[in-house]
Design a protein that fits this description.
The protein is α/β, with parallel strands linked by helices. The chain is built from 7 helices and 6 strands, in the order αβαβααβαβαββα. A 6-stranded mixed beta sheet has the order 3-2-4-1-5-6, with helices on both faces.
Length: 222
């Protein structure tokens, strides 16, 4: 089993991670030496498969960008009861409420213990996301972002994605004078492997061009 390096996860997250690792197939990864400085890993959600496998097996702690509702118990409960269980899964609304209540406490506790960074889409509060991300990167801690628009898509191919995360480079450079290294990270179910896929894109003082955005997207496709 991989040894976690630079582990800043809380006790509850590490406990859950330990238990689930005992019941899950092992995923292996090697990190190339040419990756240095602050890193933002970009990966495919695949209907929670990506976040689950990466947060379970990546050999160092990562701050994951997570929709803000999952860091607040009340908002998390509403998300599960009124959308995930009912509209997506088709569960009876009364049963959905029963299931959503304990799960909302578990998920919010787990996300907080895992040091997740809340993402506020379509809100000025998105600056909190950038501020927390910059603080983590300045502290030598890496982040992971799952920018899929259709996060329920289970295929291995990345289609449309939110591009707002690319502004992190401009914001980080403005504050620190340094660049963020964007690294595509792919989780393969068949090979039980996490792969860092070159090129590793860094050294960008300005917002990425259209071609550079396509480059990130292209190298997320297996």
């Amino acid at each position: 089993m991989n040894i976690m390096k630079g582990n800043f996860y809380g006790t509850f997250f590490r406990f859950v991670q330990f238990i689930i690792r005992k019941m899950s197939p092992t995923y292996h990864i090697q990190i190339p030496n040419q990756i240095s400085g602050p890193v933002a890993y970009i990966s495919h959600h695949q209907n929670t498969f990506g976040p689950f496998v990466i947060m379970l097996w990546f050999p160092k702690s990562l701050h994951a960008w997570i929709l803000h509702v999952f860091l607040n118990q009340t908002a998390c409960y509403k998300q599960y009861a009124k959308y995930t269980f009912t509209k997506r899964i088709g569960m009876n609304k009364h049963l959905a409420k029963i299931c959503a209540l304990p799960l909302s406490y578990l998920i919010t506790k787990l996300v907080h213990s895992g040091k997740g960074i809340p993402v506020y889409r379509g809100s000025r509060q998105i600056m909190q996301t950038f501020n927390q991300s910059v603080a983590a990167l300045q502290n030598g801690e890496d982040i992971v972002i799952f920018p899929d628009i259709d996060y329920s898509d289970t295929s291995s191919r990345t289609n449309a994605m939110y591009e707002g995360f690319l502004y992190l480079e401009k914001y980080y450079y403005k504050i620190t004078g340094q660049h963020v290294c964007f690294v595509p990270l792919y989780a393969s179910k068949s090979k039980k492997k996490l792969s860092l896929i070159p090129p590793f894109i860094s050294g960008m003082a300005k917002i990425l061009t259209k071609n550079e955005k396509l480059s990130i997207k292209r190298f997320m496709i297996s």
